[in-house]
Amino acid sequence: MPTYLHKLLKMRLEGKLHVSSTELAEYMNIEPIVVRKDIALTGISGQRRVGYDVNELIRYIKNYLSWQDVITATLIGAGALGTALLGYDDFAQYGLNVETVFDCDENKIGKEIRGREVYDIATLESRLRTAPPDIAIVCVSNAAAQQVVNRLVAVGIKYIWNFANVSLRVPRGVIVQREVIAGGLAMLTVKMKLSSMKQGDDPVEEE
């Protein structure tokens, strides 16, 4: 769905009013029937020989993903990965607004990164307790992740987007989405292996 939305937003900027499932299928390199089934999940109906209204489809997809309203977030860890996430402009299109950034590095505290001031992580509770954001984005070291998440849960945050390569222990009712970069690499290398096997490379026999 996010990939459909990305393409649709680009089409809208280009002034396109309607889009067909075939166009989206070609962009995604999948079959049109898959696109139609995906879009049907949102509840929208297309028009025969016309397709879908671009603006309407954007609205339906955002509603399906619960991206129609602003999602507030705090980011913990302003290192290389955290800084890269702050620079991802498309978050605004998806309704995600990173309101606060925390770090323990004295060289970063008080400075701005991508237009956001970095706060001392020691002030996390005092800054977030009265109005906790919807989600927390965790970009700290594996060793620090659990302690940081414990503090986030204590101030009332129930949704964690975890970029630390560690399984977190959280209370019932708290949801963690873990992103493992190595997992994506593993999927790609397995696909490489399967692709090579399908090409029918003949094994070289030793003499």
Keywords:
alpha/beta; globular; 8 helices; 207 residues; two-stranded antiparallel ribbon; 7-stranded mixed β-sheet; Arc Repressor Mutant, subunit A; 40% helix; single chain; 2 domains; Rossmann fold
Notes on the structure:
The protein is of the alpha/beta class and 207 residues long. It has helices at 2-13, 21-28, 32-40, 54-64, 80-86, 124-128, 142-154, 181-198, and strands spanning 18-19, 52-53, 71-76, 96-103, 112-113, 116-120, 135-138, 159-162, 175-178. Strand 5 (112-113) and strand 6 (116-120) form a beta hairpin. Helix 2 packs across helix 3 (32-40). The chain is globular and about 60 Å long. It starts with a helix and ends in a 9-residue tail after the last helix.
Termini distance?
53 Å
What's the CATH H-level superfamily name of the largest domain? NAD(P)-binding Rossmann-like Domain
- Which CATH architecture of the largest domain would you pick? 3-Layer(aba) Sandwich
What class do helices, strands and sheet pairing give?
Answer: alpha/beta
Residue fraction in strands: 15-25%
The number of helices is 8
What's the CATH C level of the largest domain?
A: Alpha Beta
Regions with little confidence, pLDDT below 50 for 5+ residues: 203-207
Which range best describes the helical content: under 10%, 10-25%, 25-40%, 40-55%, 55-70% or over 70%? 40-55%
Query: According to CATH, what is the topology of the largest domain?
Result: Rossmann fold
Please tell me how large the radius of gyration is: 22 Å
Sum up the overall morphology in one term: globular
SSE ordering? HEHHEHEHEEEHEHEEH
Topology, number of strands: 9
Count of structural domains: 2
Main sheet overview: 7 strands, mixed
The overall pLDDT average reads 91
Question: How would you write the strand order of the largest sheet?
Answer: 5-6-4-3-7-8-9
